[in-house]
Amino acid sequence: MPFIPHTEDDIEEMLAAIGVETIDALFDEIPDELRCGELDDIPPGMPEMELARLMQARARADGQPLCFIGAGAYDHHIPAAVWELTTRGEFYTAYTPYQAEASQGTLQLLYEYQSMMTALTAMDVSNASLYDGASALAEAVLMAVRANRKSKSKRILVPRNLHPVYRKVTHTIVRNQQIELVEVAYDSASGGIDSTDLDRHSGEDYAALIIPQPNFFGVLEAVDELTDWAHANGMLAIAVVNPLAMAVLKPAGEWGEQGADICCGEGQPLGAPLASGGPYFGFLCSTQKLVRQMPGRIIGKTVDLDGKPGYALTLQAREQHIRRSKATSNICTNQGLMVTAATIHMSLMGSEGLQRVAAASHANAAELTHALTSLPGVEGLFDGPVFHERVVRLPIAANKALRALAAHNVLGGFDLSDDYPELGDAILVCATELRSESDIESYRSKLERVIASQVETPCQLKPDW
Amino acid sequence: MIYEGSRKGRRATAQAPLEKAELSSIPAAMLRDTQAGLPEISEMQAVRHFTRLSQKNFSIDTHFYPLGSCTMKYNPRACNTLASLPALLARHPLAPETHSQGFMGCLYELQEILKTVTGMHAVSLTPAAGAQGEFAGVAMIRAYHDERGDRERNEILVPDAAHGTNPASAVMCGYKTREIPTADDGDIDVEALKSALGPQTAGIMLTNPSTVGVFERRIKEIAGLVHDAGGLLYYDGANLNAILGKVRPGDMGFDVIHMNLHKTFSTPHGGGGPGAGPVGVSKRLEPYLPVPMVDFDGSDYLWLTERDRPQTMGRLSAFAGNAGVLLRAYVYARLLGREGMHRVAEFSTLNANYLLKRLMDAGFDAAYPDRRASHEFILTLKRQAKELGVNTMDFAKRLLDYGVHAPTTYFPLLVPECLLVEPTETEAKEELDNFVEIMKRINQEAETQPEMVKQAPHTMPVRRLDDVRAARELDLAWRED
Question: What's the first-to-final CA gap in chain B, in angstroms?
Answer without folding.
Answer: 14
